[in-house]
Amino acid sequence: MTQVSTIGTSGVKWGDSEKQQWLALQAVKRSYFADVVSQIDALGSEFSVEQYGQLCYPELAPATTEYPLFVLKPKSWQTDKPTVLVTGGVHGYETSGVHGALAFAKTAAAQYSQAFNLVIAPCVSPWGYETINRWNPTATDPNRSFYANSPAQESAALMKMVNELGVELLAHFDLHETTDSDNTEFRPALAARDAQTHDNWNIPDGFYLVGDSENPQAEFQAAIINAVATVTHIAPADENGEIIGAPLEQLGVINYAKTKLGLCGGLSNAMYKTTTEVYPDSATATPQECIAAQVMVITSGLDFILAQHNA
Asked: How many domains, the chain?
């Protein structure tokens, strides 16, 4: 989202013309098909690989205009097992969310498949992945678009897929990152698009979780934080006792009204819901460490659920 200061008129919301100007500034930097789809295909012996949607953006021509969306499901669905959803890449630029979901599928899912029906959507926003972008090609944020008649194809496709499962989710792990570019690119772009003031916030140095204010599940969040602390450092609160403008509920945890805000984490009534926020720009974090933290979230969360329900 570079050069947004050159787009439109200060104090006036963007229309179609301004959004097209913004789109013209975006460039493909990596390949969804080479980086992600190839790994999904390679998991075909362990999972049922299903296409759950097809994004179509003719305004991208002559570049790639269509992106297939894939989900990993159990080869044998068992109705007596609870269902767990893992989503990555709702914001395509948040790299460890995508590769963390894939790493879980490759390295850890098998040990939990006896207890759960695992449904894994590794990359919800493929164009965002390719262009390292928060928005989709229409300058819409998929992670503010999980509601009826969604303006984001990415969000609508995922909601339809989850609805067609025909089951109530027990848990949902939504894998994200908070990056320095949130302040340098994405929040300035949001302010320009909406003709509003969006003050920069302090980017926390470390990992944190976003729980659901309507169903916080504090012990669940705490168990995950304690486990992730063995992999990467946990973000402290700022001088106001907040993380990204929200009050700290406990170490490394804030809460949002997920459904009201149209967040991916609010798409269901799952008992256990958490949104991860890895900090890949930390001087002490490596890309592999960020991926490992995402995997640890899922495994420690599932371990907590198993302990609670088997007690």
From this structure: 1
